[in-house]
Amino acid sequence: MDGKILNKLKGKTTPKIKEPDEFRVILLNDDYTTMDFVVEVLVVLFHKDLEDANRIMLDVHKKGKGIVGQYTWDIAATKVEQVHAAARENEFPLRCIVEPV
Question: Cβ distance 66 to 56 under 8 Å?
Fold first, then answer.
């Protein structure tokens, strides 16, 4: 093949890869869920160390919400379901939401 044809094709066939959209997982404050349970959720479900878990829990308590992390949609939605299931199982009204970054 002619080198000119290959050069023309080379530039046009490079696919553009788009990174997946990111979403924030946010815990919301309520008057019933204990601080200890929130910390436990952060450590067990989100794999936060104790220091980060306590910082996020205090944000939830003092500011009304705390950003847990950024994930792709599938992971964020799964995390929310896990939080709600754990809260139901332990009879707490803890809520968690997802918002686009």
Answer: yes
HSE toward the beta carbon, residue 58, CA cutoff 13 A: 6
Identity of the amino acid at 28 = L
Give the sign of the dihedral formed by CA 29, CA 35, CA 36, CA 42: positive
| 99, 50 contact by CB (below 8 A) | no
> What is the helix, strand, coil percentage profile of the chain, to 5?
50, 20, 30
Task: Write out pLDDT tens, residues 34-82.
Answer: 999 999 999 999 999 999 999 999 999 999 999 999 999 999 999 999 9
What phi and psi values does residue 26 have, to the nearest 5 degrees?
-125, 130
Q: Is the pTM of this model over 0.85?
A: no
